[in-house]
Amino acid sequence: MIRKAVVKKVLTPDERARIRATLQTNHDQAVREYEQLKFYLKRSEHQKQTETTQRLRKELVAKEEAVESINFQMEQLDLLPGGTELKVAEVEIEQDIEVGMQWEDKPAEIIVEDGVIKDIR
What separation, in Å, do the N-terminal and C-terminal C-alpha atoms of the chain show? Predict the structure, then answer.
């Protein structure tokens, strides 16, 4: 039988550093894209390209919101206590069933700590 399972990572110092590095990379990329969009916006305003200007303004707002979201995630990461289980994915697993087994409606959980499966619940 195929069943859903939730994959959770335990927040260890190494995992926190990995997540922070990923968030920082995403933040830097979003800031670069934001600055590039600002440049294109100024150029389109100077050339009086109305449709392009409107599209770039929308993209600029979306990119600004993305930067703010990443900043918020970094702040929240600092507040989480060590040992917190973070949901990272949902996967499908194969499970053997037999007549008479106890049926559980809730999805299974796979707990990963520092890249190693520690528990399957």
Answer: 17
The residue count for the chain:
121
- Domain range for 7 is 2-120
List per-residue pLDDT tens for the chain, 121 residues long: 888 899 999 999 999 999 999 999 999 999 999 999 999 888 888 887 788 888 999 999 999 999 999 999 999 999 999 999 999 999 998 888 888 887 777 778 999 999 899 988 8
- In the chain, the number of structural domains is 1
